[in-house]
Automatic annotation (TrEMBL):
Pfam families: Peptidase_M48. The chain crosses the membrane at residues 28-54, 66-85, 139-159. GO terms for molecular function: peptidase activity. Keywords: Cell membrane, Hydrolase, Membrane, Metal-binding, Metalloprotease, Protease, Transmembrane, Transmembrane helix, Zinc. It comes from Pelomonas aquatica. InterPro entries: HtpX_protease, Peptidase_M48. It is found in: Cell membrane. GO terms for biological process: proteolysis. This is Zn-dependent protease with chaperone function. Residues 155-330 form the Peptidase M48 domain. Its cofactor is Zn(2+).
Length: 620
């Protein structure tokens, strides 16, 4: 099933759900039943064949064809039983009991009674900035359910009690009432098919091949047909949280999570790993995180994080709606809230400090090797910075920009403006130097910033989208003593739209297949490559990675990349999400499309077309 057909089926399902929700749910149930019918049909067929063939073989009618048929029937029986009884891994994290955290379990019980939800069988605590409820099949496709709630320790640090309860109510809301039970059943069924599909990939038997062929046809259609149900379920869960805790509380929780999540990723974790420059051994992050998450984010950062979140639209890559749509469904507007003044670690009772120490210790253990490599790499960065500083009198613009970039890695607050100005003295329209200068100018110096962005726009089309986006952001930001310039804003918005169209064409080029046409070896310097390798080291699921340059017709001089990663033991959904995360977080000097080794491209195609892997390090 290609992407166009998937999109079409999703849109048809959304339309059917909007026109007649009951009829749509009946059609989903019927299509889910088709999957069960396939498994039961295979089971009956396998049993019948065995019942017919086995007596003939036992009574001496030995023929090769009969023996082959029995083997095939046994294989079909085994594949059918695997489909009926899919095993799931235990949740990651540490189990928390009612005795250890009575206040948390009392709050969960109050939520359960108010929404008339089922019991939660286990509660886990982990180190993620998230909360999720997971309903896994107890007996595979045969039925039953185990409800597991996982709460991230950073979430308990960041939100006040009411907002955290809104989040937990949203998660619990997925299991409520008849609609919730139906959606949960569909979710469990989808999870079972996905796990079965992954487990059969390496099985080359005839029986498994037949089941794989059915799943390759069935599962994409099942996912598309149930997409509208899953998205509607998110809105309904938000509505339950709004009714129980108040729409304003639920909306504020959504915005606060979005902004503080961006702060954790862009500021906190980057700063924590930066301490490896002076510390050879890793330090636990959660104690420091606890203090900083209760502080209000810097106003400029919060505004930009919210602006970026609101710019994202609901798409088919995720059943979760966009922040803008979720807040609108609650009847509110996405604005920066009054920040939580204290977290709610008190819900964990007297064990909060113990859990903090546990996760700090576990983080240090899990990241010991990556920290060691990052410490060594930052040492090489310091040496390179020192060498560039010594030679600064004769450095060209590229070398001065490189020094500024490396200094920013070591200290994001370093004063880099003199380096960029010196680079522009040696090459007046150097794009990277103009970009760096625009970033270092003071917030109140609008005229100088717009002048630098205008020069960057004129320097070439490769940087035009960046220049237009930042010019619009600057002109849309109210600053004391500065008059709103409507004409300039209109001009830059038109330029941004023009540049975005070019970026979209370039992105389509990057995604075009075959992937290995118009590619060459990567062009990263040793320091650029070292940073990417250090980031991959911190991404535990990645066992190998390749990187190639992609030549774009839209921007012939732009550095653009394809990255391929090997991610064993993950579902395709998790692989998709991780690849999208890597696209936004790998420190590459240009856009990157990240793909995993799977059906397209295959691992063998990557080995043939992507040159040697860049990770893991051969000398690691």
């Amino acid at each position: 099933m290609d992407q166009a057909d998937f999109v079409h089926m999703v849109r048809m399902s959304e339309q059917a759900s909007a026109q007649d929700s009951r009829a749509y749910r009946r059609s989903v149930a019927a299509f889910a039943a088709l999957g069960y019918a396939w498994v039961m049909g295979c089971l009956v067929l396998a049993g019948g064949l065995i019942a017919w063939l086995l007596p003939q073989l036992l009574h001496g009618r030995f023929r090769f064809g009969l023996l082959w048929g029995l083997v095939a029937a046994l294989g079909l029986l085994w594949a059918s039983l695997r489909a009926l009884w899919v095993r799931f891994d235990a949740p990651e994290g540490v189990a928390v009991t009612a005795r250890e955290a009575p206040a948390l379990f009392e709050a969960l019980e109050r939520i359960r009674k108010k929404i008339r939800g089922p019991a939660i069988h286990a509660v886990y605590l982990d180190g993620e900035f998230n909360a999720s409820i997971r309903q896994t099949p107890r007996w595979g496709l045969l039925g039953g359910a185990v409800n597991t709630l996982t709460i991230g320790l950073p979430l308990l640090m960041a939100l006040d009690r009411q907002r955290l309860l809104a989040v937990l109510t949203h998660e619990y809301g997925h299991l409520r009432g008849d609609h919730g039970r139906f959606a949960a059943w569909i979710y469990r069924t989808r999870l079972s098919w996905l796990r079965l599909h992954d487990s059969l990939r390496q099985d080359e038997s005839v029986a498994s091949a037949a089941t794989q062929a059915f799943l390759n046809w069935y599962f994409p259609r099942f996912a598309a047909k149930t997409f509208a149900l899953a998205r509607q379920d998110e809105y309904e869960a938000d509505g339950i949280a709004g009714r129980l805790l108040g729409a304003e509380v639920a909306a504020a929780a959504l915005v606060e999570i979005e902004v503080k999540g961006a702060w954790l990723q862009q500021r906190f974790w980057a700063g924590h790993w930066r301490t490896a420059a002076t510390a050879a051994l890793p330090a636990g992050p959660f104690q420091a995180m606890r203090v900083q998450l209760t502080e209000a984010p810097e106003a400029g950062f919060a505004r930009e994080a919210l602006r970026q979140a609101l710019a994202r639209v609901s798409n088919l890559a995720d059943t979760h709606p966009s922040l803008r749509d979720r807040v609108a469904s609650l009847g509110g507007q996405a604005v920066l809230p009054e920040w939580s003044r204290r977290g709610c670690l008190s819900l964990l009772g007297d064990g909060a400090e113990r859990w903090m120490g546990h996760f700090d210790k576990q983080w240090c253990k899990d990241n010991a090797n990556g920290w060691k490599q990052h410490h060594a790499w930052l040492g090489r960065v310091r040496e390179r910075v020192q060498a560039l500083k010594v030679a600064r009198a004769t450095s060209n613009a590229n070398e001065l920009v490189e020094e500024a970039s490396l200094r920013r890695l070591l200290d994001p607050n370093a004063d880099l403006r003199p380096l960029y100005e010196q680079a522009l003295q040696r090459s007046a329209e150097h794009p990277a130097a103009l970009q760096g200068l625009a970033q270092t100018l003071a917030d109140g110096d609008r005229a100088a910033r717009l002048q630098a962005l205008q020069r960057l726009w004129d320097a070439g089309q490769d940087y035009r989208w960046w220049a237009a986006r930042h010019a619009v952001e600057e002109l849309e930001t109210s600053r004391p003593g500065l008059v709103h310039d409507a004409a300039a804003l209109k001009l830059w918005r038109e330029r941004r739209k023009q540049a975005e169209e070019g970026e979209e064409r370039a992105w389509e080029e990057l995604r075009q297949t075959p992937y290995f046409s118009q590619v060459g070896r990567h062009d990263l310097s040793s320091f650029e490559l070292g940073e990417v390798q250090a980031e991959l080291t911190r991404c535990k699921p990645v066992v190998r990675a390749w990187l190639v340059c992609k030549m774009l017709r839209e921007f012939p001089r732009r550095r653009a990349y394809l990255a391929f990663v090997e991610l064993p033991g993950m579902s395709d959904e998790d692989r998709f999400e991780l690849c999208r995360w890597l696209e936004g977080n790998l420190s590459l000097p240009g856009p990157v499309l990240v793909l995993w080794a799977g059906e397209s491209p295959t691992l063998e195609e990557i080995r043939r077309g992507a040159f040697e892997p860049i990770y893991p390090l051969l000398n690691a």
